[in-house]
Amino acid sequence: MAINSEWRFSPDILWSPHHADRFVIYDSELSLYRIGAVGTSEAKAGSLPLSEKTAATLLAINSDTPYMKCVAWYPKHEPECLLAVGQANGRVVLTSLGQSHNSKCKDLMGKEFVPKHARQCNTLAWNPVDSNWLAAGLDKHRADFSVLIWDISSKYSPEAVPAEKLRLSGDTDSGTVVTKPLYELGQNDACLSLCWLPRDHPKLLLAGMHRNLAIFDLRNTSQKTFVNTKAVQGVAVDPHFPERVASFFEGQVAIWDLRRFEKPAFTLPEQTKPLTKVAWCPTRTGLLATLTRDANVVRLYDMQHAPTGPVGSDESEPTVIERGVQPGGGADGVISSFAWHPSAQNRMVVVAPNRAMSDFTVFERISLAWSSTTDLVWACGRHLYECAEDARDGVAEKDIATKMRERAQSRYGHDTVQVWRNHLLAGGNDPQIRSLWYTLHYILYFLLNIVTGSMWMFS
Description:
Layout: E1 2-3, E2 12-15, E3 22-26, E4 30-37, E5 48-49, E6 54-62, E7 68-73, E8 82-87, E9 92-96, H1 103-108, E10 112-113, E11 121-126, E12 133-138, E13 145-151, H2 163-169, E14 177-178, E15 183-187, E16 193-196, E17 204-208, E18 212-217, E19 224-228, E20 234-237, E21 244-249, E22 252-257, E23 266-267, E24 275-280, E25 287-292, E26 298-305, E27 319-325, E28 337-340, E29 347-351, E30 357-361, E31 367-370, E32 376-380, E33 383-387, H3 400-409, H4 422-425, H5 431-458
Parallel strand pairs: 10-14
Antiparallel strand pairs: 1-24, 2-3, 3-4, 4-6, 5-6, 7-8, 8-9, 9-10, 11-12, 12-13, 13-15, 16-17, 17-18, 18-19, 20-21, 21-22, 22-23, 24-25, 25-26, 26-27, 28-29, 29-30, 31-32, 32-33
């Protein structure tokens, strides 16, 4: 997921990585919701309707963390509902929206990670493997570092922070303040976006700096791989292909292949308004969603069809199918942000500037196939559906093609000895066919008698 690093007054949405029915809305405060079916115990009285079938119930509100710039949800199950909040002054605060009895959670609540110089925190990212590591991207301050990696288990060292700094910060409990990061990266540049790369080892960090995308290897921080580009306002790694990354600048989205990092593999059609968010679908291969400022449509780009040529070559022309979905809701239908559901297929929740929400499913393009036996088959997402005629008698009138096939298989019309029995080969339930074959039977019977009588007379 990638979000524009400009100051955000409108609300954003974040799904829980552990609970499929919980998400957070944040702007000036944090609000935890639980989503459930309408009419169930999860959707209590006073719930907010999200669709015809689902509603959201407010579980908790946290207003203790002002000047929120970005939020990241702790990736492990415990502590539950642990959130890292990046503030406009560069501080990162750990807070919670749940009542966890875990002692680790109690020790972490209210813990602050303070940079050397105050400046805006643009983005946060938890390490998905070593969950104690939290990366923060900050604005530029002279020659200071803008990428700080904090260890949330770090202890406070009194000699590390001047007393004057603690007094100005207003922290009465100095044991909750950490000022020495585990790693300092990205000197002389602002960090607008970052994410961890789930590749061979958990120590690769991709950061969108001022004029370049940089890959930092924490095993050797003196070296980095970078490429000059303006597309640094947001970065997002494809969860199905760790080598594929999307980044954006203004209205342009670039798709990168980290195996050939010299230039973008391709770029998507430029949009007229600045982008605010880009996110890969976690349940569908190669589906990227983008949102522009003041838009009422989420643009989808289907990139599941691989290029025919070698990666990065001139003859490589990937097939990208573009379409838009309009979930509605909110003032004038404007969408402030969106979030893919982490496990439900192609499901998305959008939020409007007035915090109105909508829950909907992005339906796939349907591919139809009709067999020679009149069975209809179509694919939708991960499912394959088959529609066949009910073989039970009297359910519905069968199609004429089905009747013809069944009669041919039963050798209908081939009984020349007892002609009347052919109506049984046709199913025996059609009075017109039965009348036809009985009539033919009697006609042939009388003709046979006439011919036989004539032959007897002449003999």
